[in-house]
Amino acid sequence: MEVLKNNIYPIFDRMLSREDKESLLGQRGVMVWFTGLSGSGKSTVAIALERELHKRGLLCRILDGDNIRSGINANLGFSPEDRVENIRRIAEVGKLFVDTGIITIAAFISPNNQLREMASSIIGKDDFLEIYVSTPLEECERRDVKGLYARARKGEINEFTGISAPFEVPEHPALSLDTSVLSVEQSVRRLLDLIIPKVEIKK
Questions:
Q1: Which entry of 50, 132, 154, 162 is 20 to 30 Å from 34 by CA?
Q2: Neighbours of 167 (CB within 10 A)
């Protein structure tokens, strides 16, 4: 394996630059990283955000648990090690999109600051917007769209975030959204106010 690594020759210096791609698209790339409990509204708000950005002629890509775990991370389970590797791969894929000038929207529980800091370091802190969907546990559990909280309460799911595993509140999120108070439309408006100035290329 070491011999193979020694024969890897990056070609980054001969590839088109990020600036070239952003100029072509007429936008800057950024990572919008949603974190919060299951059922907090991460995916719902992310999908609505993507539609609004699309309406404005901005190219986006959503990454969420379902499309990642059924594909690139299909071989990973939910052990602590696999959870770290899950987020690491997501961040590496996200970085490729961001470096291509695409507004990338990630919706993952990513339950602790260490995981989110790792993702931010891989993607680049200047390109990383941490969005904390701060909907209270009681509301998330009341919604329980997938019946996961009920199963966790019965002990059928181990290490379930918010019940049998902790969730660390982000220390310095770019934005906090409580979807038990804010509508989807209100949440998206706040996100647009944050994102649009960062992705616009001044003519």
A1: 154
A2: 18
110 is catalytic: yes
pTM, entire model: 0.89
pLDDT in tens, the chain (203 residues): 555 566 666 666 678 899 999 999 999 999 999 999 999 999 999 999 999 999 999 999 999 877 788 888 888 887 888 889 999 999 999 999 999 999 999 999 999 999 999 999 999 999 999 999 999 999 999 998 789 999 999 889 988 898 988 899 999 999 999 999 999 999 999 999 999 999 998 76
Q: Token match 């071989």: residue?
A: 75
Instruction: Write down the residue that tokens 């706040």 correspond to.
Output: 190
What residues have CB less than 8 Å from 48, skipping those under 6 apart?
Answer: 184, 185, 187, 188
The single residue of 38, 40, 43, 110 carrying the catalytic annotation is 110
Which residues is 175 bridged to in the sheet? 131
Distance from the Cα of residue 16 to its chain's centroid? 26
d(CA 130, CA 124): 12
Alpha-carbon gap, residue 53 to 195, rounded angstroms = 9
Q: Cα separation of 118 and 67, whole Å?
A: 21
Strand order in the sheet with 103-107: 60-64, 103-107, 30-35, 128-133, 175-177
Residues in the chain: 203
Structure tokens at 23: 């100029």
